[in-house]
Design goal:
This protein is mostly helical. The protein is built from 13 helices and four strands. Helix 2 packs antiparallel against helix 7 and helix 2 packs parallel to helix 8. The chain is globular.
Length: 350
């Protein structure tokens, strides 16, 4: 890690640590709280605009140390658009299709700025693929922000993987961005590790997703188009991406909107087994760290070995998720008790 990256990360961490308590107090003063409900695991109102502190912390780190691509207007506008859509949803509620439109528009801006998936060149196929890629990352992190500390911890570990990839994470600018993301998330985790004192909200989780998507696209932009490079970001973020994919399949199979909420995510299933929230968070961190380490090691192997390794890892994750009940039709209610109490499955209609 370069000195510039380290300075950006430390600044983002400091800004996050300083701003989160301010945002928390403001939310409590103005009554901007996430209330308990059927799709919640907390039993008391919690401040929900932590994404403001996260976004400002990331911006502070990047603007202090970055030059070049991230300061290009289309990229800045893309990030601002996703963040504003998330913030508006946290404050007033935004229809899912409008949030999706904002994500697609952001992806179009990134594609136009040259940040694209490593296939299709300058074609409509590349455009569609890039839009799907960005939307997948943004919503995967949004879905993953359903239990204390998960999204911030997993995003920080994924960003570290980009930093330690051979020849660093894409461009010099992306190295600063990845460091800023790590710093902002670690600062936020001081207040959001179970039991969370503040939630990041959509304004935080969607920005984390877009940041990881941008890091991946810049990784493609500055490196060869080999299969190991193409699959590296997917393996690093495999946990939230797989969980989101299974959620979409599960909801469509139940004739529901893919964007409709439920409590059958991977972390919900662990909570339903009686795991305490801290154990769930630490398990997800460890799993993501293992995946990141595997992805970094696989980058140094030949293409055939990497593809076989990647296929085996993803297949193992998929089988484990399905066996745990990720596609099973079930409803989950919140058990009575303290914040973050276990979730208990029960038959529909009970």
């Amino acid at each position: 890690m370069s000195l510039k990256n380290a300075e950006a990360g430390l600044l983002a961490f400091a800004v996050s640590v300083l701003l989160v308590p301010v945002v928390k107090r403001a939310c409590e003063h103005f009554g901007i709280l996430d209330q308990p409900g059927p799709l919640k695991i907390h039993s008391r109102p919690v401040a929900r605009l932590g994404g403001i502190a996260i976004a400002i912390a990331i911006a502070a780190g990047v603007l202090a140390g970055a030059t070049g691509s991230f300061k290009e207007l289309p990229v800045l506008v893309a990030f601002a658009l996703v963040w504003l859509a998330g913030l508006t949803d946290d404050l007033r509620g935004v229809p899912p299709l409008l949030r999706l439109a904002a994500q697609i528009l952001s992806a179009l801006m990134l594609w136009n700025a040259g940040f694209r998936i490593p296939a299709g060149g300058n074609t409509p196929l590349s455009l569609l693929g890039t839009c799907a890629f960005v939307v997948a990352f943004v919503n995967a992190m949004n879905f993953w922000d359903g239990a204390d500390g998960l999204a911030a911890g997993v995003a920080a570990i994924a960003a570290l993987a980009f930093l330690f990839a051979p020849r660093a994470a894409g461009s010099v600018t992306s190295g600063v961005l990845a460091s800023s993301l790590v710093g902002a998330c670690l600062g936020f985790l001081i207040f959001s590790f179970p039991p969370a004192k503040i939630f990041m909200g959509d304004s935080g989780s969607t920005v984390l997703g877009l940041t990881l998507a941008f890091l991946a696209l810049d990784f493609y932009h500055t490196k060869s188009k080999s299969p190991p490079v193409a699959l590296f970001p997917v393996l690093v973020a495999a946990l939230p991406l797989l969980d989101a994919s299974l959620a979409v399949v599960r909801r469509i199979s139940q004739h529901r909107s893919p964007l409709a909420g439920d409590r059958s995510h991977g972390y919900d299933l662990l909570l339903a087994r009686g795991w305490p929230p801290r154990r769930v968070a630490l398990f997800c961190y460890a799993a993501t760290l293992a995946l990141a380490a595997m992805a970094l090691l696989a980058l140094r192997t030949n293409e055939a070995t990497f593809l076989l390794f990647d296929a085996l890892v993803l297949a193992a994750l998929l089988i484990a998720a399905i066996r745990s009940g990720a596609l099973r039709r079930q409803e989950i209610r919140k058990d009575s008790g303290a914040h973050g109490s276990p979730l208990v499955p029960f038959p529909p209609g009970r």
